[in-house]
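Late entry, written up from scratch paper. The run itself happened at the end of the previous shift, but nothing got recorded in the book at the time, so transcribing now.
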Amino acid sequence: MAEAKDNPKHSKNAHMGSRSYRYRAFSVHVFTASGAAIAFLSLTAAIEHQMGLAFAWLGLALLVDGIDGSFARAWAVKTYAPQLSGDVLDLVVDYVTYVFVPAVILLMSGIYPHWLLATQGAIIVLSAALYFASNTMKTDDYWFRGFPAVWNLVVFLILVFNPPAIIATVAVIGLALAQASNFTFVHPVRVKMLRPLTLTLLVVWSGAGILAIVEDMKVDPTTQWVLGLIGFYFLVLGLLRREKQSAA
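Output as recorded:
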């Protein structure tokens, strides 16, 4: 065994293997960071008033965010690429894709007076910046504590339903305040309660969302109903969790 360890060829192979692990781990950071580049493409589409395309890019960014963690764990990123913080990188990209770009999309939509859209956008980016700094963002059973700043979905639904300005404004203010609340919101993948139903409805909602994007946000009534009812289901799950805890 000692001879094998002292063998130059063995040492070289071990060094090459270690290098390949480092390159592979670093590639995960690059993959996560690609979400920021995708967000920039969404931003350019919004500036050109191509809202369907803007949300298509955000959908791709959402996919990247959904799978990069699996690669990070499988390829031991914290061990082989510790020079970068995956947690910080993930937060930076999430703020851009979940908050900042959606706020700009809302501004560029022109569905309300410019000053009102600018005010709504300012509320979104300010409140979400504070939320992203929270140290108590999740409960021990993986629920989000407070509205989880998924403003990309909120802006998407505003453009799908195009409600009166007062309703949209109240919704934005209410959800901004809810980020600082103790009300819990479901993590659709990690929360165990009603997980099969939640995942099934998530797939259906995603299909309806893709259809809305294909229709360039000019959504038919059936798709609106699907998006609205399933969205309502995700909201009320927090109430069901509270009732379950009270009963226990």
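The chain is about 75% helix and 0% strand.
(Scratch paper discarded after transcription.)
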